[in-house]
Specification:
Length: 143
């Protein structure tokens, strides 16, 4: 009555459709989790550009804020045209082996234009720390 080949093809098609639906639902959640450290980096740079010392310091790890005030204050008003924000986190294999997923490193490539006006390209590598489910910069980039 039913052709076994057609039934098999239909089951495979439905399975593929279910897998695609699952990926469409879960993918954005996973992607947003991976973007959280980048959001902290961009929030810092935006606060510096606006001259918002308190906002910039809020993106830095609480234990490093006091020692970062002067470095951040010297950057206020700078402009950053970000070319690349590359993030390095422990791999799934490293995490399965016990590596903590509470640290990451980011490399930022940007064109920096200080208040004085002369532009240059610069790269900054910064460690990020996850504390209470939020990512913080361990120190100010480009400082």
């Amino acid at each position: 009555m039913y052709d076994p080949g057609v039934v098999l093809a239909l089951r495979l098609a439905l399975g593929l459709l279910a897998a695609c639906g699952f990926a469409a639902l879960v993918g954005p959640l996973v992607e947003s989790r991976h973007r959280q450290p980048e959001v902290s980096v961009r929030a810092y740079l935006e606060a510096v550009e606006r001259g918002n010392l308190a906002g910039a310091l809020e993106t830095i790890a609480p234990e490093a804020r006091a020692e970062s005030v002067e470095r951040v204050a010297n950057q206020l008003g700078n402009r950053y045209r970000v070319d690349v924000v590359a993030l390095a986190t422990p791999s799934l294999l490293a995490r399965a082996s016990g590596a903590p997923d509470t640290t990451a490193r980011t490399t930022i490539l940007a064109e920096v234009e200080p208040r004085a006006g002369e532009r240059w390209k610069s790269t900054s590598v910064v460690t990020l720390l996850r504390l209470d489910n939020r990512w913080y910069l361990a120190e100010p980039p480009f400082a």
